């Protein structure tokens, strides 16, 4: 008999007043017992509506059925069939708009905690399973993957599994992309990302860091070096600014810089040399995951008051629900329907205030969301010493500006055939944020997978 | 890992190092830079490619010891290795097609200006190199700059060697005396570059300057290196580091350059105490 409990089995978390002072993971994960209890809420629906909500089609009821029977390794292998980074996805997927949004248990009550179960299974495997991946015999073909984010790593993993000799080139000094430099430790421990990457290396994938493709080597040269096909997964790392007065003041960061200093360069650890400003009152502009991460990071660095300044309404925020909830619990102040007009500085050129205007919702715009419009005479100032701009990122420009014949659209996104991920350049495939603009981990992985399949077909039919 | 193959002290605070980095050596051009990390705990710092040897596969950097990372770097010797060495980054200087150029270096800026003088000279331009130092004890690269230019004007603030005065006085004097520069390259402290532009702008002589904002990734990802050029936001690491001197907002850049000033002063003080301690114990 399934467990008919209406709510998800609660998941242990660090208390808000404790966790807002440390960088340890907020959510601690299910115990075996909790996982069992939650798994039993799944009805094992024949038509598997949940699966249609997952961009990589994880066999959800099947893996959950294994959990019910206590077959955790089998559950893991089931997930692995379609998802190469389960420990990551279980933690950061926006489940409420993907798999869990389609779960029948969600019609009355809460959906099955699919993400939580996925995480449990992946963590169980990390502790108890073995990753003695059988190295597939080489098929003699070489493929280069540019960018070691989720898209590139997935593509590399899939190709290695087919016997390709894969070399990944990464611009930064560590692999992982946004998983390493963007998403904070308290949401996605870096050790987990590195474990996933070691598993890839064990499969025979070679990862070369410190290699900025387009600068040190160009795509044409890689072809000359014997790589028969190329995958571009360079992400959307170019930060947008609002172009309002004062964005040049000391104390205005892009979210990327703020988060990179803390995550990649570990500014929060005393043994690292990276400096970061000692800020007390912070305004983070934006309403996505990036904004939530920046705000919660600021709290953990010791800020006393952190505001999220968002020009639309709460329901319109693109961030994962869980992160918004966590941010609120931790004391982040949300200023909805508020838009910055300028940042003001003191005599040393340091941020001292942010001036905002109040908004109200007007007619729906092209995206179907009601567009925020300014309320006249509603300007007000907040005193802050730091402003973090988290209003979105555009695709990295380096590759497209150095590769002949690689077409990009007006927004800088690489143009691909949506099914095969083929670019306008023969033998070059692309996916992830570089193609879609800033999106999600799982979509990037889905794209990387599709590209791996096409690259295989391309080389085999050559 | 990137092995150090040569280390030479240029003066009390400046050192030249050649590092084994074959991929970068193959590609580097004047005006580009690298980013290095000494060890796992270190910052990523940008340094100009001062020279390269495509055959030997080495890249030369010249650094001034100003803070924690450059102090750590200076602790290393031939045979030691750097953890990360990334490049070549930034746009190469556009030096093609000029006939007569003045290349101006201020102090440590000479390390960055020298490769540009060399490139211009090799492309056939007549090059006047104007190098300014506070005093004679800190003069660097004198032989190299002399070899790679047609005339070297050495200036010291106190007149302890060469001519007394600022680089701008030499520049103005040359122009008055009929030097018909079609290009001025100025690299050094922001105030110096601003002063050079003060001389060249009224005379409408094209002026390239090199900006050194704070950088992290060097690939256009963090936005930390942004500056305002011609009213638009530019990222020095991908759009620069060379810019049209007439268009740069120097006042803004000077303020932003001080972001971590106090923190870094403290870190450097700590580091030098630690190093001294080490020396005492050795
Ligand atoms: C702060 C933050 C929080 C987020 N939170 C979530 C979340 O909770 N859930 C979710 O699903 N998504 C989240 N996202 C979005 C998600 O991280 C991205 O959609 C995903 O990482 C995109 O993957 P990718 O592989 O396309 O690119 P990236 O992860 O951006 O990786 C691209 C890699 O390519 C490298 N690269 C770039 N140019 C070059 C070059 N020229 N040569 C070599 N290497 C290069 C980069 O250094 C980088 O390592 C978040 C993003 C951010 C910034
Ligand atoms: C594109 C580029 C090329 C450069 N090329 C060279 C070079 O060829 N040789 C060289 O000696 N230096 C060069 N610099 C400057 C060099 O990067 C800094 O001196 C170095 O980062 C200082 O690191 P630190 O940890 O030792 O000092 P820190 O402790 O970081 O700083 C010490 C002092 O230096 C100042 N400072 C910090 N960063 C910079 C910076 N980027 N530029 C100027 N001053 C800074 C600080 O305000 C502080 O007062 C270059 C910078 C850029 C952006
Ligand atoms: S990968 Fe993401 S969307 Fe798919 S089942 Fe797992 S948590 Fe849900
Ligand atoms: S829809 Fe929900 S209940 Fe049905 S199989 Fe999927 S997870 Fe289980
Ligand atoms: S150094 Fe990060 S964008 Fe230029």
UniProtKB/TrEMBL annotation, chain A:
What's a Gene Ontology MF term here? glutamate synthase (NADPH) activity
- Signal peptide from the UniProt entry: none
State the superkingdom.
Bacteria
What EC designation does it have? 1.4.1.13
Keywords on this record? Oxidoreductase
Occurrences of domain FAD/NAD(P)-binding (ranges): 142-445
Q: Show where the Dihydroprymidine dehydrogenase domain sits.
A: 19-129
Q: This protein is called what?
A: NADPH-dependent glutamate synthase
Biological source species: Caproicibacterium amylolyticum
What lineage, starting at the top, does this entry show? Answer: Bacteria, Bacillati, Bacillota, Clostridia, Eubacteriales
From TrEMBL, chain B:
Q: Name one Pfam family in it.
A: DHODB_Fe-S_bind
Q: Which GO terms describe its biological process?
A: pyrimidine nucleotide biosynthetic process
Q: Where does FAD bind?
A: 62-64
Which annotated residues bind [2Fe-2S] cluster? 222, 225, 237
Which InterPro entries does the entry mention? Cyt_c3_hydrogenase_gsu, Dihydroorotate_DH_Fe-S-bd, FAD-bd_FR_type, FNR_nucleotide-bd, PyrK_electron_transfer, Riboflavin_synthase-like_b-brl
Note on how the cofactor is bound: Binds 1 [2Fe-2S] cluster per subunit. Binds 1 FAD per subunit.
This protein's record includes keyword Signal: no
What's in the keyword line of the UniProt record?
2Fe-2S, FAD, Flavoprotein, Iron, Iron-sulfur, Metal-binding
Protein name in the entry = Sulfide/dihydroorotate dehydrogenase-like FAD/NAD-binding protein
């Amino acid at each position: 008999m399934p467990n008919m409990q209406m709510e998800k089995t609660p998941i242990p978390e660090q208390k808000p007043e404790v966790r807002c002072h440390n960088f340890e993971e907020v959510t601690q994960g299910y115990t075996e017992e909790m996982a069992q209890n939650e798994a039993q809420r799944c009805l094992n629906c024949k038509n598997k509506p949940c699966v249609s909500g997952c961009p990589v089609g994880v066999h959800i009821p099947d893996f959950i059925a294994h959990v019910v029977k206590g077959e955790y390794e089998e559950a893991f292998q089931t997930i692995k069939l379609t998802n190469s980074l389960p420990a990551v996805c279980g933690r950061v997927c926006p489940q409420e708009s993907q798999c869990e949004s389609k779960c029948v248990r969600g019609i009355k009550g809460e959906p099955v905690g699919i993400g939580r179960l996925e995480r449990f299974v992946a963590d169980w495997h990390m502790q108890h399973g073995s990753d003695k991946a059988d190295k597939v015999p080489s098929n003699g073909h070489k493929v280069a993957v540019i960018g070691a984010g989720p898209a590139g790593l997935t593509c590399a993993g899939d190709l290695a599994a087919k016997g390709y000799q894969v070399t990944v080139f990464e611009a930064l000094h560590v692999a992982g992309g946004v998983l390493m430099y963007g998403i904070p430790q308290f949401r996605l421990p870096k050790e987990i990302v590195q474990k996933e990457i070691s598993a890839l290396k064990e499969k025979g994938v070679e990862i070369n860091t410190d290699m900025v493709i387009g600068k040190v080597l160009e795509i044409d040269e890689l072809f000359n070096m014997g790589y028969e096909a190329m995958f571009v997964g360079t992400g959307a790392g170019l930060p947008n600014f609002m172009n309002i007065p004062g964005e040049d003041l000391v104390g205005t960061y892009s979210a990327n810089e703020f988060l990179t200093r803390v995550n990649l360069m570990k500014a929060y650890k005393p043994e690292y040399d990276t400096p970061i400003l000692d800020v007390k009152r912070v305004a983070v502009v934006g309403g996505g995951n990036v904004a939530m991460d920046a705000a919660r990071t600021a709290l953990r660095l010791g800020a006393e008051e952190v505001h999220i300044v968002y020009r639309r309404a709460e329901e319109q925020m693109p961030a994962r629900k869980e992160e918004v909830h966590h941010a609120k619990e931790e004391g982040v102040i949300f200023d909805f329907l508020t838009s910055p007009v300028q940042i003001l500085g003191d005599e040393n050129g340091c941020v001292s205030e942010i001036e905002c205007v109040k908004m109200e919702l007007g007619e729906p715009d092209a995206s179907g969301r009601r567009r925020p419009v300014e309320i006249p005479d509603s300007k007000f100032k907040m005193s802050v010493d730091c402003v973090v701009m988290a209003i979105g990122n555009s695709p990295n420009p380096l590759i497209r500006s150095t590769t002949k014949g690689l077409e990009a659209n007006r927004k800088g996104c690489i143009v691909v055939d949506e099914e095969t991920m083929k670019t306008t350049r023969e033998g070059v495939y692309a996916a992830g944020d570089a193609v879609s603009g800033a999106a999600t981990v799982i979509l990037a992985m889905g794209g990387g997978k599709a590209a791996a399949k096409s690259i295989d077909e391309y080389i085999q039919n050559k | 890992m990137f092995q150090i193959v040569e280390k030479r002290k240029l003066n009390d605070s400046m050192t030249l190092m050649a590092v084994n980095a074959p991929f970068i050596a193959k590609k580097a051009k004047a005006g580009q830079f690298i980013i290095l990390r000494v060890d796992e705990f270190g910052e990523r710092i940008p340094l100009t490619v001062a020279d390269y040897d495509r055959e030997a596969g080495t890249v030369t950097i010249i650094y001034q010891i100003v803070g924690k990372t450059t102090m750590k770097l200076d602790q290393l010797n031939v045979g030691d290795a750097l953890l990360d060495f990334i490049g070549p980054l930034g746009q190469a200087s556009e030096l093609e097609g000029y006939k007569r150029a003045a290349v101006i270096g201020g102090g440590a800026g000479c390390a960055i200006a020298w490769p540009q003088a060399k490139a211009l000279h090799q492309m056939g331009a007549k090059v006047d190199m104007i190098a300014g130092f506070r005093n004679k004890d800190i003069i660097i690269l004198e032989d190299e700059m002399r070899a790679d230019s047609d005339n070297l004007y050495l200036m010291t603030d106190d007149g302890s060697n060469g001519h007394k005065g600022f680089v701008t006085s030499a520049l103005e004097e040359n122009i008055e005396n009929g030097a018909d520069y079609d290009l001025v390259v100025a690299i050094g402290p922001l105030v110096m570059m601003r002063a050079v532009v003060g001389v060249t702008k009224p005379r409408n002589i094209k002026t390239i300057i090199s900006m050194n904002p704070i950088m992290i990734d060097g690939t256009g990802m963090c936005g930390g290196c942004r500056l305002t050029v011609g009213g638009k936001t530019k990222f020095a690491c991908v759009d620069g580091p060379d810019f049209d001197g007439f268009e740069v907002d120097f006042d803004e850049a000077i303020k932003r350059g001080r972001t971590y000033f106090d923190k870094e002063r403290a870190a450097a003080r700590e580091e030098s105490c630690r190093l001294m301690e080490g020396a005492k114990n050795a």
